[in-house]
Amino acid sequence: MSLHLTRRGFIGSAAAGSLVIGFPISAFAATQNGHSVNALSSPVAGKTPTAGSGPEINAWVVVQPDERVIIRIARSEMGQGTLTGLAQLVAEELGCDWARVTTEYPTPAENLARNRAWGSFSTGGSRGIRESHEYVRKGGAAARMMLVQAAANGWQVPATECSVSKGVISHAASKRSISFGKVATAAAALTPPTDIRLKDPKDWTLAGQRLARLDTIDKTNGAQVFGADLKLPGMLNAAIAACPVFGGKLVAFDAAKVASMPGVKKVVAVGDNAVAVVADTWWRAKKALDALPVEWDFGAHAKVQQADIDAMLKEGLTADKAAVGNAQGDAKAALAAAARRIEAVYAYPHQNHATMEPMNATARFTPASGDQPARCEVWTPTQNGEAALAATAEAAGLQPSQCEVYKIHLGGGFGRRGAVHDWVRQAVAIAKAMPGTPVKLLWSREEDMTHGLYHPVTQCRLTAGLDTNGNLTALHMRISGQSILAGIFPQNVRDGKDPVVFQGLNPGGAESAIGYTVPNLMVDHAMRNPHVPPGFWRGVNLNQNAIYLECFIDEIAHASGQDPLALRRKLMAQHPKHLAVLNAAAERAGWGKPAPDIGGQKVFRGLAQTHGFGSYVAACAEVSVSPQGALKIHRIVAATDPGHAVNPQQIEAQVEGSFVYGLSAALYGACTVKDGRIEQKNFDTYPPMRIDAMPKVETIVMPSGGFWGGVGEPTIAVAAPAVLNAIFAATGKRIRELPLQRHSLRA
Predict the structure, then answer these.
(1) CB of 439 closer than 8 Å to CB of 235
(2) What is the 3-state secondary structure of 342-354?
């Protein structure tokens, strides 16, 4: 007997504590928390519920005869827990038994067909819960009201006399009760209510609780299907290579050279800059692609070096023209009159999303036949099903109503799988060349690393003016660098201003306001766009803006002989929510008291705070640096105020995960350009943080109510500046350019 055990199967067997012989994913249906994601019959959740399920009460709730409740979630799950959090909110208002809850994704085409019944499918900017909490709660509440009304009608009693608990409707006066499953059919026939009242958060019993995530078990036992796992009957596989220089073109290739290689089915030109090989397995497709003679036109950008980009940004630091994002008083005059001026220049590099699962999509294009119109279907991990549907329709040359996208859990998103769906367009183009056959396109790691949409590269010159008493009287922040909107949504740039550039530095508002009051302030941006394509990278511009401001505030404190916390408190007197999280982190960490030595080495602390994605966050980092320059980050205390906490356990997990991401970027993350192309091609040159380098994280969740903030991204921004400030406290060295691995911390 031979045994073929995959890595996923091995992990699953190890988790189970015994050897499990795994079988391949069913060719007819893989499941995602109980619903089909790859059946060739193209299941559509919505009007037509999953096979074998009960009636749809409304767009959000299906109640099965066995009392299981299917909650439909439009936002994408990519490890951040949004699926569970939104299900909690629906279940809270519905009053069902949480132990019987499962979830499924509706499809974007069905959403359009039903007048966008599920609202936005976009999952980015930490908006999954904060932008949809109200209408999903109303969906749960409306379903509860319909179920109660159905029971009341059967009993001929007023609905107001009935109560609900864990999926059971009761009428105390007559001592009768009935389960959701038994009245679901009658409830589904009722007219939905229009006057829907939601619970006060103080009365929540499910929402606000530390409930286990719904997707954890499948991810630990290997049952979870990601896009790279997908298998369909008759499926072929494609590997692709695009011109290594951004903006370059495909000139020619010699398909005959690889046509006879094992498993090869076809070589396809994809757009004007890429070529793909289709084969029976991905590895055979990749081997043939590697052997394929290809001629590229690298274009003018092939001469661009990293030094050219750095010089472009440096010029912008002193340019006359710049778009103003925040202005108070007269910063120029105040700086000219200041008793003392402090100046520093910081820099932040291009960075890759580096999702563990490379870009992939499976597409099937079915040509028109008889009275049946052409159709295109795509199965893909995406942060925005509607955007993926639009990309599918455009690439297929069809109407959206002729297309469908089936969302699959993401093996990492971080913004890469949101606004731009280049891999989906490629998959559709390849599928059109193989009509009627499903083709799975999977990027190699090298393709993924060198053809991404990168965190924008910027530099920042900061100039502060102090009076004779050391008070901050003026501050000018000149940001020079790349605009994401100019690269992706140029129509949103007005008069040379990209508002996203100023995250965390805005004069006010609920999204990302600066936390300091400076009498004379100027924050402006000189847009300088290199040829490397920019994208929304987890935390976006808040990341570098927090470094620039928080490290420079630290510089001002030390230069003026002030305690960094005391200076911040003075400048934050008019920003109580910013101040509250800063005080909480500092107090928990023991600011003002010497940190205990660890392993004979002294430990030093650094602070940072910011406001982004609607939440207020702060961190205090503790580090030590050996005489040989070895950095050890021992602990980070993080405080976050998201307004409301739907699942505190998930918030803690998100804070911890955000520090992995933020510290990986700070320690190692830099993509550099040589001959117009990205140099870093894999994790050997673009490493993530290792587990032995991860600090202990203590999270303080302190929701103050009255607003809804995000939790997936804000704390990324305070990880690096808190550590950088702690490094200065430990060494006296001010690191102003990332990543840290480029610098020596040796005493």
Answers:
(1) yes
(2) EEEEEEECEECCC
Query: What is the rounded distance in angstroms from the CA atom of residue 532 to the CA atom of residue 301?
Result: 9
- Which of 689, 701, 540, 510 is CA-nearest to residue 618? 701
Q: If residue 481 lies in a helix (H) or strand (E), which one and from where to where?
A: strand 472-481
For the record, the structure tokens of 161 come out as 């006399």
Provide mean pLDDT across the span 30-53: 36
Q: Can you tell me which residue has the tokens 């499809």?
A: 107
Neighbouring residues of 584: CB distance < 8 A, sequence distance ≥ 6? 618, 639, 700, 702
C-alpha span between 341 and 620 (Å, rounded): 27
Distance CA 436, CA 585 (A): 58
286: three-class secondary structure by DSSP: helix
Render pLDDT for 247-303 as a digit per residue (tens, 0 to 9).
999 999 999 999 999 999 999 999 999 999 999 999 999 999 999 999 999 999 999
Q: Would you state the structure tokens that stand for residue 34, as one six-digit string?
A: 């109980």
Residue owning tokens 């690269």: 487
Q: 276 is written with which tokens?
A: 């793909």
Rounded CA separation 487/649 (Å): 37
**Burial of 704 (C-beta count, 10 Å sphere; 0-12/13-18/19+):** middle
Residue 162: DSSP 8-state: E
Token pair recorded at residue 516: 């300091």
> Average pLDDT over the chain, rounded to whole?
92
Q: Both tokens of residue 498?
A: 């990209």
Residues 6+ apart with CB under 8 A from 184: 54, 55, 57, 63, 64, 65, 147, 150
How high is the pLDDT of residue 32? 41
Give the Cα separation of 564 and 568 in Å (integer).
6
Could you give the residue ranges of the DSSP H alpha helices within 160-248? 180-188, 216-220
pLDDT tens for each residue of 490-533 = 999 999 999 999 999 999 999 999 999 999 999 999 999 999 99
Rounded CA separation 208/274 (Å): 48
SS3 state of residue 237: strand
CA angle 599, 729, 468 (to 5 degrees): 160
Consecutive H or E run containing 291: helix 282-291
| 313: phi then psi, degrees, rounded to nearest 5 | -70, -40
596/587 Cα distance (integer angstroms): 15
**Token pair for residue 634?**
């021992």
Distance, in Å, from the CA atom of 718 to the CA atom of 705, rounded to the nearest integer, reads 22
Helix, strand, coil percentages for the chain (3-state, nearest 5): 30, 25, 45
Going by C-alpha positions, the residue among 40, 17, 16 that lies closest to residue 28 is: 40
Contact assessment for residue 637 and residue 319, using Cβ atoms and an 8 Å cutoff: no
- Cα angle vertex 579, ends 575, 580, to 5°? 120
Region label for 222, one of left (φ > 0), alpha (ψ between -120 and 50) or beta (otherwise): left
